[in-house]
Design a protein that fits this description.
Distance between the termini: 31 Å
Shape: elongated
Structural class: mainly alpha
Number of strands: 0
Helix content: over 70%
Largest sheet: none
Length: 99
């Protein structure tokens, strides 16, 4: 049992670190897109990499922040999670030998 508790504690730490990286990535994404809008509007100069990196940042934010969002019990995440399909009882009982 202590091994399981240590593993769960390590997962909680990874969730917190992932949430920190997601928050930093969200801030960098916001700054990057603000700079893109200003330089495109004011100077008619666009950075072609901004759109590509915004997609990478969004994926990074999604995957790094999802563990923390599920663990923290965010109501929006819990509501969406409750509508996800669950395996049916007949499918799970059919896979057991001797049923």
């Amino acid at each position: 049992m202590p091994l399981l508790r240590r593993a769960l504690a390590a997962i909680d730490i990874l969730n917190a670190v992932g949430a920190g990286f997601a928050a930093i990535s969200a801030a960098l994404l916001a700054v990057m897109l603000i700079v893109e809008v200003v330089t495109t509007s004011a100077f008619a100069w666009s950075q072609p990499w901004a759109v590509e990196y915004s997609g990478y940042f969004l994926a990074f934010i999604l995957f790094c922040g999802s563990g923390w969002a599920l663990r923290s019990g965010d109501p929006d995440v819990a509501a969406r999670w409750s509508f996800s399909p669950r395996p049916s009882r007949s499918a799970s009982s059919a896979s057991r030998p001797g049923s």
